[in-house]
């Protein structure tokens, strides 16, 4: 499945394509998954749980640099899985990424505000989406930019004036 998704076949992928590639019977596939969407969801869960595990050693007052270092290392080590789930690109994955991103990027005091402003929520989402978009380009380009370049670019995104009040209050 990862190979087929990395070839960009997500939209037109059929169970027949997968079972032929894996050299298994359809019945074998159906023993494990009811649909391709559930298999994609399982791959998304594997990606997200691996990322959360990689981030697990961060303490509550971690720096954004530490967050980005661990994220970049995880993506680089799991490049094929990352590209596969990004190629499948479901709304469900975007929600999962946003949840992880917000929980590690937004300072705890900002996440514990009593009244949530829709504008703040939009900024939080925009920040995570900007970072995800950058990382998506990096992954699809074969992770060719060196680690320091990627770290600098990501720190520039979070250091942007538009996110200043969101991140530094």
- Specify the overall morphology: elongated
The sequence of SSEs as H and E is: HHHHHHHHHHH
CATH superfamily: Tetracycline Repressor, domain 2
Named at the architecture level, the CATH assignment is Orthogonal Bundle
Q: What is the CATH topology?
A: Tetracycline Repressor, domain 2
Q: Structural class, judged by helices and strands?
A: mainly alpha
**Low-pLDDT residue intervals, each spanning 5 or more residues:** none
Q: Quickly count the domains.
A: 1
Task: Determine and state the CATH class.
Answer: Mainly Alpha
Main sheet: strands, sense, barrel: none
Task: Describe this protein's structure.
This protein is an all-alpha fold and 169 residues long. It has eleven helices and no strands. It has one domain: Orthogonal Bundle (Tetracycline Repressor, domain 2).
What layout of secondary structure does this protein have?
Elements lengths: L1 H5 L8 H8 L3 H7 L3 H20 L8 H14 L1 H10 L2 H15 L2 H4 L6 H23 L6 H12 L5 H4 L2
